[in-house]
């Protein structure tokens, strides 16, 4: 199913003019605070009326201001997971989960509640009250509640933003389960590149109320022109690798980017696909293959393009096997090594630089 | 201890107050919701009208009720035509006067509780498929229940003690419109009636206290539920 979103909305100080399409999988809506992300998802959910909009979900038109079409939120079949879980305090966890049931049309195929509960690991919480839940638990229940409304699209508006890092790490695997098992397209709003790198199939980058760029997560995150919008410090490409072996010294061997990649131990079986985010600032470039170096990952690369930033850095786009990487080096290094398009050499990455939080497990989207 | 006359006064008072509160409660919730959540032209006027009985001298409210609902008042004539009987000088009139006088207190309490409900929860319910009326029934109403109970009890206490508007509108007719405060007043006007008046005063204190205790208990339980415990 493909969703089309076209929204124009203006307040005096801020004009939003956005259009994009979202297909199956996770479409991430990325942008800094105030870029207009929440306005877009609220328009999709029907919680705000944009000045002009056309939003459709498959064959169903949800909004068409020029044709006077406005489907009220309760008939949109759009599940919404808010940043603050917004669970109903007067209902138990179990009754929060079943809240949507009474409103489902009889023709709706029954959602397997047990499967959703298992997928999110919330079986032990069912009889609890809302006040006893931790932030992470509440957010998992909120995801389950939205899934059990049999949505045709799931909106997640910065579902991790209000949580500390430990809670984020706790929920991310569950979000991967939802992506891979729930069979519902997801629009995921975030300003955290690491979340997007781990979860998204496609990325739409919003900047100042407009779409800056969009495409597959591998393309957008290795796109030099998108770096300004995503942030130089957080810049980093996503590559796909396959688990080849686990070694007794605590490392996992994976194949990807045309080479062998060594990672801190990953809890995934041999043959499982991984998505790795390698931050641009964690890559060193070397003309010759370095030996006697502590870094374990040495990937043969070729420079595709360079882009000079405002500061002392240069962002370098690299081709490694069939994958693309971003590396950030100083202008002095770039000059000294004569880095240019077509330059071939080696990218050096410490194995510990691939943080465990940046390793995603699960089927990779086909076009990554 | 209580004579038949006193039982009659107590029974009538409870009936008047109960009918006044039960019949005005749905309207009270509706008006409170409208004032808390909607913006509409004339909102300030509606708000003023609702609160007027709180600030007007009760005798003025009673007189206005008499003008409107008396045998020759427009509403009185309409009621006579539809039901074959009016409310003037009847216990139903006493209930009407009590309801009007208690209405502002009821609306204020309920409105405060509605304003305390996070509209984001109602939005969440809408995205889960609940139409507006269902959002109200399944989310808003359970969450404001402590406030509704508090408003109803406050209104009940006010209705039980209503004096000025009642005596002006429906007079002081034993067995028909003579509620507890009117009976106390009548006994105090009668030489040697102090003893009877005192017994009624004790009854009034007991009934009011019981109502407060019951409402505290019910509202406490509801508040606990609303807090997600």
Describe the protein in words.
The complex is a heterodimer of chains A (368) and B (229). Chain A is 20% helix and 36% strand. Chain A contains nine helices and 21 strands. In chain A, helix 5 links the parallel strand 8 and strand 9. In chain A, helix 4 runs parallel beside helix 5. The longest helix of chain A has 17 residues. Chain B has 229 residues and is mainly α. In chain B, helix 1 runs antiparallel to helix 7, helix 3 crosses helix 5 and helix 6 runs antiparallel to helix 7. The N and C termini of chain B lie far apart (45 Å). The mean pLDDT of chain B is 90. Chains A and B meet through strand 7 of A and helix 6 and helix 7 of B.
Write the layout of secondary structure elements.
The complex is a heterodimer of chains A (368) and B (229).
Chain A (H helix, E strand, L loop, with lengths): L2 E8 L4 E8 L3 E5 L6 H9 L6 E6 L2 E5 L4 E2 L7 E4 L11 H5 L15 H8 L14 H13 L5 E5 L7 H17 L4 E5 L2 H7 L2 E6 L2 E7 H5 L5 H4 L5 E11 L4 E6 L2 E6 L8 E7 L3 E4 L10 E12 L4 E8 L2 E8 H6 L7 E6 L9 E3 L7
Parallel strand pairs in A: 3-9, 3-10, 7-8, 8-9
Antiparallel strand pairs in A: 1-2, 1-4, 4-5, 5-6, 10-11, 12-13, 12-15, 13-14, 15-21, 16-20, 17-18, 17-20, 18-19
Chain B lengths: L3 H34 L5 H13 L2 H12 L4 H10 L7 H25 L3 H9 L4 H30 L2 H7 L9 H10 L4 H33 L3
């Amino acid at each position: 199913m493909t969703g089309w979103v076209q929204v124009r909305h203006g307040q005096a100080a801020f004009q939003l003019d956005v259009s994009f399409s979202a297909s199956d999988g996770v479409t991430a809506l990325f942008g800094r605070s105030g870029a207009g992300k929440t306005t877009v998802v609220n328009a999709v959910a029907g919680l705000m009326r944009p000045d002009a909009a056309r939003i459709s979900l498959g064959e169903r038109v949800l909004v068409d201001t020029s044709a006077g079409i406005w489907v009220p939120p309760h008939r949109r079949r759009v599940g919404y997971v808010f940043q603050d879980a917004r669970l109903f305090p007067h209902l138990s966890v179990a009754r929060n989960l079943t809240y949507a049931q009474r409103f489902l049309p009889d023709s709706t195929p029954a959602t397997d509640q047990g499967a959703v509960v298992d997928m999110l690991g919330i079986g032990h919480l069912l009889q609890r009250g809302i006040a006893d839940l931790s932030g992470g638990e509440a957010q998992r229940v909120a995801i389950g509640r939205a899934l059990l409304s049999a949505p045709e699209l799931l909106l997640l508006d910065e579902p991790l933003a209000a949580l500390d890092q430990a809670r984020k790490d706790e929920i991310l695997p569950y979000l991967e389960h939802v992506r891979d098992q729930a069979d519902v397209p997801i629009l995921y709003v975030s300003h955290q590149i690491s979340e997007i790198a781990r979860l998204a199939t496609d990325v739409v980058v919003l900047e100042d109320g407009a779409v800056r760029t969009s495409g597959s997560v591998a393309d957008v995150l290795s796109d030099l022109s998108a770096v300004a919008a995503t942030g130089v410090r957080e810049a980093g490409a996503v590559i796909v690798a396959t688990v080849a072996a686990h070694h007794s010294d605590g490392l996992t061997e994976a194949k990807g980017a045309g080479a062998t990649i060594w990672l801190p131990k990953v809890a995934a079986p041999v043959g499982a696909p991984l998505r790795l985010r390698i931050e641009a600032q964690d890559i060193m470039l070397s003309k010759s293959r370095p030996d006697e170096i502590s870094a374990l990952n040495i990937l043969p690369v070729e420079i595709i393009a360079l882009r000079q930033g405002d500061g002392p850095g240069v962002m370098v786009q690299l081709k490694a096997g069939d994958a693309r990487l971003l590396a950030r080096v100083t202008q002095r290094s770039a000059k000294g090594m004569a880095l240019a398009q077509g330059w071939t050499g080696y990218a050096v990455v410490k194995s510990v630089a691939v943080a465990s939080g940046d390793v995603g497990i699960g089927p990779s989207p086909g076009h990554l | 201890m209580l004579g038949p006359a006193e039982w009659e006064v107590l029974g009538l008072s409870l009936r008047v107050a109960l009918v006044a509160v039960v019949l005005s409660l749905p309207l009270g919730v509706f008006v409170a919701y409208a004032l808390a959540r909607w913006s509409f032209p004339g909102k300030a006027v509606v708000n003023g009208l609702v609160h007027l009985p709180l600030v007007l001298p009760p005798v003025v409210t009673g007189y206005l009720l008499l003008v409107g609902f008396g045998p020759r008042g427009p509403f009185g004539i309409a009621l006579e035509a539809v039901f074959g009987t009016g409310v003037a000088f009847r216990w139903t009139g006493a209930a009407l006067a009590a309801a009007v006088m208690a209405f502002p207190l009821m609306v204020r309490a309920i409105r405060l509780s509605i304003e305390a409900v996070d509209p984001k929860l109602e939005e969440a319910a809408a995205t889960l498929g609940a139409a507006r009326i269902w959002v109200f029934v399944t989310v808003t109403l359970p969450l404001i229940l402590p406030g509704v109970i508090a408003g109803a009890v406050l209104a009940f206490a006010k209705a039980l003690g209503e004096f000025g508007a009642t005596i002006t509108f429906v007079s002081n007719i034993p067995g028909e419109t003579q509620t507890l405060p009117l009976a106390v007043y009548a006994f105090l006007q009668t030489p040697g009636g102090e003893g009877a008046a005192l017994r009624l005063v004790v009854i009034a204190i007991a009934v009011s206290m019981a109502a407060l205790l019951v409402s505290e208990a019910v509202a406490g339980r509801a508040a606990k539920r609303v807090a997600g415990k």
